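Quiz preparation item.
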């Protein structure tokens, strides 16, 4: 039986899970004997069967997770005395939460991915089980306790999931105000806490097992073990405290990420505009109707809306408010006219809907527990292009979260939904949004949806169907507003679910509005003082017939300055029209008035109407667009005068909203402007056809870019970012011009008849074609795009390019075809530009004038002459019979530069074709073209016999076929100031047995359907030696010939299996080789997971030959997230080896007999840090980096995220003494307090650039693996590092002394160059030449790829672009020296440290 402690823990975990379930759900909880039972039970569920294509991969993830848990449960049963029932209970709980989630396929997928993520963080329990079986004494009390707590952590995760999907709290008992005060934990925080706990226990498990297997080192490490246990306890305590502190920050960052994921359209402005138009006392009649009152007071009970054969599908919680039907005079009952009877336009439905929102949001008297909430969306084709159902779902989902995120269930629903997209820029799909809304609705008892303009929705049928289902299954109440011509609502809703806006309802509201208008007109003397006010109002009310829009247009018309009082009275008192076409007649009357304006006013009116028909402009933007020759009123009141003029000459057809932007007064006004009068054929449209309008607007946009925006950086000088507000103020039209000229140009061409053109399109092409050849102008355009619109422009470019390519596929005029070809080429270049530089340009748009053009080759851009790049990426010409036609890129590679940056060596591995085909196609290895054809034809992988199958298992004898014909190349380059030259190229044939052993050790196929493999490579600092796997290659003096030998790895019997052909893929084995700075010694360190780590130092004879072991030692090491031992490094001068094991730093005098590594420093627990989403990142040993300084006198300790290291004098741990002067210099840097904040100009305004660069006192050559400490008579001690930053990529030289900091931005890099596996070396010139061009004044940058920890088949190898040489004119480097600014610039830079600078 299990002990009382474990029994209590397991019972508490189970009971907490059960408490999150409803009674009916508890009945479905049953034990499962195996993960196969779990998967089989889920596979039989209806929702899972219905979506097999999406759910089968999910079940595979669950199966993998269960397989990982099987040996864990065996450990609990055998070594922790737990009953087998606890494994069955855990699997049953897993099956239940999967069953609860299966109703929502999108959520089911995300949950399975989350489960897989947890599984990837668990210890490899099969190896733990094997280790415990061989050493039962290893099961210490701490290990047993840790294993038990992992069980509790898993149940905590299942409980968090159950809280999301369980219906236990389907009816909320407390108000949001009460629930918000309770202690609660959002799902993503629970998930992060579980991961942190698993990580901590995983470290304890590995530590305890390794300690048990330490053997001879047991006594030496006993003290270390005690400290580790104390540290674990402290970390666990801090973990709890930090999670509590981070909740609020996590919520803020999560909300920001969620908004990006939902991507809601603007939904507030139209409601605010509509409510602003409401007249006090109007719209009250709607709230007094019996139907509205009955709908509002209806109480929902779960299950009461379940449809059957006798009951309707539309629930009473759905209400439709619509206008009256009317028959236009041009409608023909005999069918000669295709138009149907329409809804009466302009009856004030939008204003009524806005009024209803505010009415429903008011809580009933005495109702404090259930305050109502209203979510809304108004479809509007007049002022928005986002009118699809998914746009409504986005707006509704955003409002639900913002109003109810303090409710735990609501927050958890969104947390699960967005969990997979937190770090990406993807937006929620329609299915994801619907699932989110559906899961939230049952928990919100007083929620209303108000949806206006359903007739303007792009798919009203789908919208109505979804909303009806929501009302059937939840307490939701929905109010639709629209015209009556919505077929889906007409067919579905009975009369008791409708309210018709009749003239009788609206007359009182119109009269109330006209009372205010007439009083105002009489006061302004536009009407006689003795006019019969009541008679005028009544006549207008009778003529309006319930159309608010007609009344508003009439009021604007009557306020025209050219009318007399008598004419106004006559117009008001006109007889009522014979039909309901008076709105069209009003538009025709307005058209006539516009035509009677003077030529200039008329021209401006038609321009304003055309531009407003296709965009929503502010006053400044519209004025810039239509007044090409400028506006002649530039005093302080020019904007107000322009607004008055526009409204006046357009006779009220367009208006200015509360957001300061122009729009048509109503959709019918826009339709009249675009199509003319349907009643009077002689009345033509106010706006030219789309082909003409958009061609004219595109021409204006491009002429604005070409003529009114200078061809230079927007800020006026290179290297300085312009502020978006300043740019917008200076060039108001620039935002629209930059973003819309290409779509408008394509739209106009798309409307052309085949193989023809028109004058406006010809003019547009004549304007755009020269602009495309103005490289500086295009660069200004690019800078404007990223300054004013930010990132994520790629999708816009892609949509436009697809349209251009489609049009090129159709017959078109030769001139148009040539123009489209040029345009799609520009778009292709812009797509590539955004892919490589989007993040950089989004943050620093001015960089388009800098390093961007060094890497971006485009005929549309002007390449800078101040820099150039040279790729030395290795390639291998193919044999005649190879299935590959292009020169082959290596899959594994490493490069290294000499200490003076004058030479570069590149070691590349080219595998066999059989391996490459399987690797690059993520399929079976070895692979042939015949296998690929079978798989593409759909043949099951199960029937393909191969060496390494994607299905896993031991390799077959065919593995040898994949290991034949592997080649390595070793190339040495001479890197000069202007170009690089290949000095030697050596080809090395790899031993097939060495390759096969490596693949058996490391090659694996992941659940994500990709291959992973490690392939250890290294190059000695003298560039005369290299290691390929366990083979050491020494090149002779001429570098053209070589000799090689394998490392003698027979010093440890436990290594024999890892280095034999008996090794299989289930037991991974990795290792690394490190070289001393003088290339005389090399270190071999392996990672045998649970057994002891092997660490050996070998010496290399100076004359070449076999490597002889100098000292062999086994070090028992504890876990670190990136490996058991890290930060391995030889001392620059002495026979001293440094390495770190978790937070323990060791030094080894390997030349001394019987020496052991000595623990010299224990790093403190790293301070907590948050990721971009506000979650605390688990503090593993990789929070630190440790290395020697380049002089060898100190240890440099970097903490993650902090640019500057802490220096510790090596003399504190090591007997050789430093000179007093150097010791004082080091301590001055180590112990310095906050430097004096004294700004020092880096670029002397009186001196030359040469003096400015010299003032920085940078070393002539520095690597990103170096920490350079120096002492100067004038500045004292200083530290210099070469910092690398990713996303966006950047290299910066940073120097800090006792007084100030200097930062030199050396190079910006495109996103396709990964900075993680890269070593950078920068060489500065000794002096600056004043001659132009690149030469002796070069700053030389060498980017060399490191040997990757793991190579993955779905990632482009670093050798695709690396190694890379960048040469820059040093006079163009950006230097900052102000301490405050320097701190800001280096805030996010984290240098990678390994070997010292020599």
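Solution:
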């Amino acid at each position: 039986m299990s002990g009382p402690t474990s029994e209590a823990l397991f019972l508490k975990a189970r009971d907490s899970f059960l408490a999150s379930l409803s009674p009916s759900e508890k009945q479905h909880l049953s034990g499962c004997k195996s993960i196969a039972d779990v998967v089989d039970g889920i596979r039989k569920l209806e929702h899972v069967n219905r979506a097999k294509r999406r759910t089968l991969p999910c079940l595979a993830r669950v199966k993998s997770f269960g397989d990982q848990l099987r040996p864990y449960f065996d450990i609990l049963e055998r070594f922790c005395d737990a009953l087998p029932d606890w494994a069955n209970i855990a699997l049953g709980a897993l099956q239940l939460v999967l069953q609860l989630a299966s109703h929502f396929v999108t959520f089911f997928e995300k949950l399975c991915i989350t489960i897989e993520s947890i599984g990837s963080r668990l210890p490899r329990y099969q190896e733990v089980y094997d280790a415990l079986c061989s050493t039962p004494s290893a099961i210490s009390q701490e290990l047993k306790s840790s294993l038990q707590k992992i069980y509790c952590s898993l149940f905590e995760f299942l409980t968090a999931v159950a809280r999301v999907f369980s219906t236990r709290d389907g009816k909320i008992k407390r108000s949001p105000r009460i629930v918000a005060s309770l202690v609660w934990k959002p799902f993503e925080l629970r998930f992060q806490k579980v991961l942190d706990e698993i990580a901590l226990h995983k470290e304890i498990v590995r530590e305890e097992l390794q300690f048990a297997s330490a053997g001879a080192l047991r006594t030496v490490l006993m003290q270390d073990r005690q400290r580790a246990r104390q540290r674990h306890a402290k970390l666990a305590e801090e973990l709890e405290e930090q999670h509590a502190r981070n909740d609020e920050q996590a919520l803020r960052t999560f909300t920001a990420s969620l908004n990006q994921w939902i991507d809601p359209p603007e939904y507030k402005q139209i409601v605010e505009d509509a409510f602003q138009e409401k007249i006090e006392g109007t719209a009250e009649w709607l709230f007094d109707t019996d139907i509205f009152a009955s709908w509002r007071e209806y109480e929902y009970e779960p299950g009461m809306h379940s449809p059957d054969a006798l009951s309707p599908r539309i629930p009473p919680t759905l209400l439709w408010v619509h206008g009256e039907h009317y028959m236009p005079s041009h409608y023909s009952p005999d069918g000669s006219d295709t138009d149907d009877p329409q809804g009466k336009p302009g009856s004030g439905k939008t204003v009524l809907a806005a009024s209803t929102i505010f009415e429903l949001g008011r809580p009933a008297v005495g109702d404090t527990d259930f305050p109502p909430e209203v979510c809304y969306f108004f479809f509007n084709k007049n002022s928005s292009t986002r009118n699809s159902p998914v746009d409504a779902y986005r707006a509704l989902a955003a409002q639900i979260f913002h109003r109810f995120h303090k409710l735990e269930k609501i927050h958890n629903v969104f947390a699960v939904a967005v969990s997979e997209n937190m770090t990406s820029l993807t937006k929620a799909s329609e299915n994801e949004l619907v699932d989110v809304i559906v899961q939230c609705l049952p928990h919100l008892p007083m929620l209303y949806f108000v949806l206006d303009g359903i007739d303007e929705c792009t798919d009203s049928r789908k919208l109505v169907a979804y909303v009806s289902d929501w009302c059937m299954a939840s307490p939701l109440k929905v109010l639709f507003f629209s015209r009556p011509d919505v077929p889906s609502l007409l067919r579905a809703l009975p009369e008791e679910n409708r309210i018709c806006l009749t003239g009788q309802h609206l007359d009182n509201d119109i009269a109330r509005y006209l009372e205010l208008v007439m009083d105002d007109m009489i006061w302004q003397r536009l009407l006689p003082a003795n006019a019969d006010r009541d008679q005028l109002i009544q006549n207008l009310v009778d003529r309006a017939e319930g159309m608010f829009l007609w009344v508003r247009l009439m009021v604007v018309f009557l306020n025209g300055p050219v009318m007399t009082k008598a004419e106004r009275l006559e117009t008001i008192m006109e007889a009522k029209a014979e039909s309901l076409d008076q709105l069209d007649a009003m538009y025709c009357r307005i058209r006539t008035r516009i035509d009677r304006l003077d030529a200039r006013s008329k021209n401006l009116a038609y321009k304003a109407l055309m531009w407003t028909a296709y965009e929503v402009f502010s006053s400044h933007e519209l004025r810039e667009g239509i007044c090409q020759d400028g506006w002649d009123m530039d005093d302080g009141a020019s904007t107000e005068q322009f607004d008055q003029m526009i409204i006046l000459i357009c006779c009220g057809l367009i208006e200015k909203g509360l957001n300061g932007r122009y729009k048509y007064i109503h959709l019918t006004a826009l339709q009249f402007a675009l199509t003319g009068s349907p009643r009077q054929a002689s009345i033509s449209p106010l706006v030219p056809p789309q082909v003409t309008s958009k061609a004219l607007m595109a021409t204006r946009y491009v002429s604005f870019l070409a003529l009114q925006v200078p061809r230079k950086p927007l800020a006026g000088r290179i290297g300085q970012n312009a502020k978006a507000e300043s740019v917008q103020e200076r060039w108001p039209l620039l935002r629209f011009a930059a973003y819309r000229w290409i779509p408008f140009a394509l739209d106009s061409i798309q409307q052309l008849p085949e193989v023809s053109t028109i004058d406006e399109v010809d003019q547009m092409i004549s304007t755009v074609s020269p602009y495309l050849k103005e490289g500086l102008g295009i660069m200004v355009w690019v800078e404007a795009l990223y300054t004013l619109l930010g990132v994520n422009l790629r999708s816009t470019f892609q949509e436009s390019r697809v349209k251009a390519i489609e049009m090129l596929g159709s017959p078109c005029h030769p001139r148009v075809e040539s123009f489209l070809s040029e345009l799609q080429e520009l778009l292709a270049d812009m797509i590539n530009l955004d892919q490589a530089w989007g993040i950089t340009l989004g943050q620093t748009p001015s960089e388009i004038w800098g390093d961007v053009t060094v890497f971006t080759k485009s005929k549309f851009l002007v390449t800078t002459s101040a820099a150039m790049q040279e790729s030395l990426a290795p390639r291998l010409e193919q044999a005649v019979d190879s299935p590959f036609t292009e020169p082959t890129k290596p899959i594994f590679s490493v490069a290294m530069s000499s200490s003076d940056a004058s030479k570069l060596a590149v070691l590349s591995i080219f595998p066999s074709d059989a391996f490459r085909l399987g690797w690059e196609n993520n399929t079976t290895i070895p692979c042939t073209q015949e296998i690929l054809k079978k798989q593409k034809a759909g043949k099951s992988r199960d029937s393909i016999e191969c060496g390494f199958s994607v299905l896993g298992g031991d390799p077959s004898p065919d593995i040898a076929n994949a290991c034949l014909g592997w080649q390595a190349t070793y190339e040495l380059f001479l890197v000069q100031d202007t170009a690089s030259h290949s000095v030697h190229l050596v080809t090395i044939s790899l031993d097939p047995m060495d390759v096969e052993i490596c693949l058996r050790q490391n090659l694996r196929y992941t659940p994500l359907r990709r291959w992973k493999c490690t392939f250890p490579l290294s190059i000695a600092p003298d560039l005369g030696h290299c290691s390929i796997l366990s083979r050491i290659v020494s090149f002779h003096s001429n570098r053209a010939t070589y000799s090689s030998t394998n490392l003698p790895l027979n010093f440890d019997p436990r290594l024999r299996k890892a280095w034999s052909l008996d090794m299989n893929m289930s037991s991974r084995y990795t290792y690394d080789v490190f070289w001393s700075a003088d290339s005389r010694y090399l270190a071999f360190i392996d990672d045998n997971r649970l057994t002891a780590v092997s660490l050996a130092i070998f010496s290399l004879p100076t004359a070449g030959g076999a490597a002889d072991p100098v000292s062999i030692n086994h070090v028992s090491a504890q876990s670190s997230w990136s490996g058991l031992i890290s930060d391995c490094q030889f001392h620059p001068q002495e026979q001293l080896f440094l390495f770190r094991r978790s937070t323990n730093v060791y030094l080894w005098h390997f030349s001394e007999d019987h020496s052991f590594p000595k623990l010299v420093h224990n790093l403190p627990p790293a301070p907590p840090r948050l990721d971009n989403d506000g979650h605390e990142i688990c503090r593993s040993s990789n929070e630190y980096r440790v290395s020697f300084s380049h002089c060898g006198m100190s240890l440099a300790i970097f903490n993650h995220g902090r640019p500057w290291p802490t220096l510790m004098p090596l003399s504190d741990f090591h007997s050789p003494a430093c000179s007093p002067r150097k010791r004082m210099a080091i301590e001055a840097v180590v112990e310095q307090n906050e430097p004096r904040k004294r700004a020092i100009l880096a670029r002397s305004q009186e001196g030359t650039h040469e003096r400015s660069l010299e003032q920085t006192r940078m070393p002539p050559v520095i690597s990103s693996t170096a920490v350079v400490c120096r002492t100067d008579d004038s500045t004292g001690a200083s530290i210099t590092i070469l910092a690398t930053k990713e996303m966006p990529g950047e290299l910066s030289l940073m120097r800090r002394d006792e007084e100030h900091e200097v930062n030199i931005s050396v190079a910006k890099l495109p996103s396709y160059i990964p900075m993680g596996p890269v070593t950078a070396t920068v060489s500065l010139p000794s002096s600056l030449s004043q001659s132009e061009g690149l030469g002796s004044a070069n700053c030389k940058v060498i980017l060399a790829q490191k040997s990757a920890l793991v190579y993955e088949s779905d990632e482009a190898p670093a050798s695709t672009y690396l190694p890379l040489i960048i040469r820059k004119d040093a006079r163009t480097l950006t230097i900052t020296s102000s301490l405050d600014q320097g701190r800001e610039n280096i805030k996010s830079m984290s240098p990678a440290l390994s070997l010292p600078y020599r």
